[in-house]
From TrEMBL:
It comes from Streptomyces liliifuscus. It comes from the Bacteria. GO terms for molecular function: alpha-amylase activity. Gene3D superfamilies: Glycosidases, Oligo-1,6-glucosidase, Domain 2. This is Oligo-1,6-glucosidase. Belongs to the glycosyl hydrolase 13 family. Residues 18-399 form the Glycosyl hydrolase family 13 catalytic domain. The lineage of its organism: Bacteria, Bacillati, Actinomycetota, Actinomycetes, Kitasatosporales. GO terms for biological process: oligosaccharide catabolic process. InterPro entries: GH, GH13_cat_dom, O16G_dom_2. Residues 396-418 are annotated as: Disordered.
Length: 531
């Protein structure tokens, strides 16, 4: 382990809430969400109990990839407002007890970034990965022909309009003489640029960053040692200059990313040797955003009862053992790239059990905007700002406008042309309707967050003992609280043995008779443990 400064104390109690800014709240009626819209909805977040918000990229961009193609790291896109508007949002949130994180796209820029425009016309500029033309005049595999006067081709990170910043190569290859070492001039300049960008925003009151594609920096880096060294260097700098700030990684392999310098890593639908199996084995029911290369699997939160929590539990145990308390793992309900919980055949009645699990497991919970009311993944939407990645992988369905009330566009915007169509379902859930119904999912999520926040044993630091990794899923937190979750549609039972449950702190469809706990379909319960 590297000798990093301990994570800021506030992080252990974080309940993350991810906001896709263009779809959250539109204050000026142009159809696109903005900072003022978020500020106007802070009461919802405070009432819900979340204390940390992270925003998808909000920098200047041509929006070929929804803002992940950054053209200016130091200024926000006008469609969201101004830098001052962001500063006001951060200040207002902070006064309400909510920290704000930005999304840092570290590995690539937009092809419209001034850095790239200069590099495309200057053969001596090594800000990006450039290869010369081949003997036949063609470009090397995976490279894109230069758009400027510079001959040769550049390496993209994702879409062709996202040129990869040059952080060097981990290994030399005589057949590819363009490979530069990680300490070459271009890679050093890019590491310095990351410090400049982070320092700029942290100095304005932001609390940290979620880092996009954090594992992508050094190329041909099979064990990620080169990339890890960069983040280790940046973490030591952060510890010295902004000790209360945090770095969250989009890496999907906490046992590698946290020792490298991140405070937290997410379990994701990709990452690590199992390509995100831990998360997919929980939520992915084969609908919504589906990569055709994924092996078919029965997820645990499915009515069929064919799945298992074991892939997740084993991945969490491996990662936790590797971290040894040096950082955290975060478990999201969904995100802007992955299906919402309410997707395909999954129905609203199945969601309470999912939240009962997510908010009582010793990971940092990350709630994707709208999941707290059970917003639906909307299928078959048109490609919007690069949302379609494959025949079964349309991210737009997870990015539809927040559903606030029964007004036009569900209260998101007064525009006739919102960023994406609102869910057309006549029974679509709304915040207003669920606020008025204390039996709603929204009220349950609020109660679960409050329970977690006021009960240390149910938080990130409490121990967990798995009694039964099946249906029902049964575990004890901190030696004091029994959690029972049954995501399948049928009734199921388990003999508790030595564990004696007491009063129910939160329960639906779970009964205890002697040493046997019986859970109805989609039931869950959280109980005191006696003795």
């Amino acid at each position: 382990m590297n000798s990093f400064r301990p994570a800021p104390a506030w992080l252990a109690d974080a309940v993350f809430y991810q906001i896709y800014p263009q779809s959250f709240a539109d204050s000026n009626g142009d159809g696109i969400g903005d900072f003022d819209g978020i500020a106007e909805r802070l009461d919802h977040l405070v009432w819900l109990g979340v204390n940390t918000v992270w925003l998808n990229p909000c920098f200047v961009s041509p929006f070929g990839d929804a803002g992940y193609d950054v053209a200016d790291y130091l200024n926000v896109a006008p469609r969201y407002g101004s830098n001052d508007d962001l500063a006001k949002l951060v200040d207002r949130a902070g006064r309400r007890g909510i920290r704000v994180l930005l999304d840092l796209v570290a590995g690539h820029t937009s092809a419209e970034h001034p850095w790239f425009r200069a590099s495309a016309n200057d053969p001596d500029d090594h800000r990006y990965v450039w290869a010369p033309e081949g003997r036949s005049g063609g470009t090397p595999e995976g490279f894109v022909a230069s758009p400027g006067s510079r001959p040769g081709a550049y390496l993209p990170n994702f879409f062709d309009f996202q040129p990869a910043l040059n952080f060097g190569y981990a290994r030399e290859n005589s057949a590819e003489p363009w490979r530069q070492p990680v300490d070459a001039e271009g890679p050093r300049a890019n590491r310095e640029a990351l410090r400049t960008i982070m320092d700029h925003w942290l100095s304005l009151g932001l609390s940290g960053f979620r880092v996009d594609m954090a594992a992508s920096l050094v190329k041909d880096d099979p064990d990620k040692a080169g990339t890890s060294e960069i983040w280790t260097e940046l973490r030591h700098w952060l510890d010295r200059t902004h000790p209360d700030a945090v770095l969250l990684s989009e890496w999907g392999e906490p046992e590698v990313s946290v020792p490298a310098g991140f405070h937290t890593d997410f379990f994701l639908h990709f990452g690590g040797p199992t390509d995100g199996l831990a998360l997919r084995s929980l939520w992915s029911n084969g609908t919504g955003t589906v990569n055709d290369t994924w092996d078919p699997l029965d997820c645990f939160f499915d009515p069929s009862g064919q799945g298992s929590p074991r892939p997740f539990v084993e991945a969490w145990q491996r990662a936790s053992s590797a971290l040894r308390g040096s950082g955290f793992i975060s478990l999201p309900t969904a995100n802007h790239d992955f299906s919402r919980l309410n997707c395909g055949p999954r129905t609203a009645e199945q969601l309470p059990a999912a939240f009962a699990f997510q908010l009582t497991w010793p990971t940092l919970p990350a709630i994707y905007y709208g999941d707290e009311i059970g917003m639906r993944y909307v299928p078959d939407l048109p490609d919007t700002e690069g949302s379609v990645l494959g025949p079964r992988y349309n991210r737009a369905g997870s990015r539809t406008p927040m559903q606030w009330d029964d007004g036009p566009n569900a209260g998101f915007s007064t525009s006739d042309h919102p960023y994406l169509p609102v869910d057309p379902a006549p029974d679509r859930p709304t915040v207003a309707a669920q606020r008025a119904d204390d039996r709603s999912l929204l009220h349950l999520v609020r109660r679960l967050i409050a329970l977690r926040t006021t009960t240390p044993e149910l938080g990130s630091g409490g121990s967990v003992e798995v009694l039964h990794a099946g249906y029902p899923f049964v575990y004890v937190r901190g030696g004091r609280y029994l959690v029972v979750v049954n995501p399948q549609q049928g009734q199921t039972s388990y003999r508790l043995g030595r564990v004696r449950p007491g009063r129910a702190l939160e329960s639906s469809g779970v009964a205890i008779d002697g040493d046997t706990v019986t859970a109805q379909g989609f039931g869950f319960g959280i109980f005191d443990v006696i003795g």
